[in-house]
Amino acid sequence: MAVLPIYVAPHPVLKKPAAPVAAVTDDIRALIKDMFETMYATRGIGLAAPQVGQSLRILVMDVEQTGDRAEDHEAPPVPGKPIAVINPEIVWTSDELNTYEEGCLSIPGQYAEVERPEKVRVKYLDENGQAQEMEADGLLATCVQHEIDHLDGVLFVDHLSTLKRDMLLRKLKKWARENADDIKESYILP
Ligand code: NI
Question: For the stretch 23-56, what's the b/e string if a residue is b when 16 or more beta carbons lie within 10 angstroms of its beta carbon?
Answer without folding.
Answer: ebeeebeebbebbbbbbbbbbbbbbbbbbbebeb
